[in-house]
Amino acid sequence: MSKIKKGSVCKGNKLQEFDMTNTDFTKTPVTFRMGNEIIHNPSCHILCRKSQSFCPSCMQQRRTLMVQKCRAQCHNTNRTDPTTTVSYKYLTKEEMKHRMETLHKQLTKVKKQRDRLENKIKTLIAKQSLSLNQNDHNDLKEIVLNECDQVTHQTSLHRIFWEQQVQALKKSDSRAIRWHPLMIKLCILIRHQSQAAYETMRQCIRLPSQRLLRDYTH
Ligand SMILES: [Zn+2]
Asked: Is 72 in contact with 20 (CB distance < 8 Å)?
């Protein structure tokens, strides 16, 4: 009797706390204690220290159950997460339902975000926009087209190649030609692959001399 006075009854691990779908807990033998359905533990000491809720054996069981629960939850979350690659055909009805619900929540969230942004843009247009007349429009169009033309061709090797050919043809002395860095790069590459082929090409088109290319590579 004195032992009972000093201690309290072990609560045991409630089935409800660890009962999850897709686990074997539903098959676990259960017992009733203090009106609760608890997971049966044959090693339960029944009594424990007054300051504690579980006996050492049930505490050990609890730790194991916690780890299992965590693993099961993690597994379920991954399978039902909308970003998962797990096919619907491998999911249980519950998992499908969970995934659909998550998808629905995300869709609603995205729709709200879209509406907020739409309103923000409408407000900005109403407050800060300027109306352009036909002349403004034409000027702007011309500027954009000219800029676009320059940007597109400035880095175009074809354009540079033909421009350099025209420049070279206008000059009798090849040493007076200022070669574009891209042309130099291209020629170094071709010459590196075959000096003979490069020399043959030089007989047909105007290209930097091999001596000049050597200056760039040495
Ligand atoms: Zn116990």
From this structure: yes
pLDDT tens-digit series, residues 4-44: 556 788 999 988 888 754 455 556 788 888 888 888 899 99
As for how many domains the chain has, the answer is: 3
Q: What is the ipTM of this complex?
A: 0.97
Q: How far is ligand 1, taken at its centre, from the CA of residue 21, in Å?
A: 25
Residue 31 CA to ligand 1 centre (angstroms): 12
CA of 61 to the centre of ligand 1 (A): 9
36 Cα–ligand 1 center, Å: 13
**Domain encompassing residue 49:** 2-80
Q: Are residues 169 and 110 in the same domain?
A: no
